[in-house]
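Our consortium's second objective concerns turning raw sequence data into structural hypotheses that experimental partners can test. To show how far this objective has progressed, the report includes one record in full. It was chosen at random from the queue rather than selected for favorable results. The single chain below, 112 residues long, was entered without modification.
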Amino acid sequence: MQNNTYIYSAISIAGIFILLLLSFILQPKLINIENIDENLINQKVRIRGRIIQEKNYDNDFSVLTIKDKTASIEVTCNCKNLQGKNAEIIGRITEYGQELQIQADKIIEITN
C-alpha cells in the first residue's frame, strides 16, 4: 500500500511539472489589435506593436498605449521606459471604465 502512495505522488508531481512546462512553451496566437473585442475578456492574447505613450504611476505601475497597423490599446504593467519601442506583449484582456485593455504578463522588446 505504501508503494502505491509513492507511485501516485510521483505521477502527480510529474503531471504538475508537465503542465508548468506547457504553460511556458505554449503561447497565445498573435492577433491584430483591431480583432480584440468583448468576446476575448479574460482570455490571453499576444500582440505586437509600437509603444506610443507611457504613463507612469507609483510603485513602477505603468499604463502603456501600444499601436499596431490596425488599432491601439492600453496595456497595464509593472514596467518603465518603454515609450517609442517595439514590443510583443502577452497578457489577459480586461475591461476598465468600459474600455478594453491588456494586463501584461510578459513584455518582450523587439529590436529591428
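The partners drew two points from this record. The two ends are 60 Å apart (CA to CA). The first strand starts at residue 44 and ends at 56. Both points have been shared with the crystallography group to help prioritize constructs.
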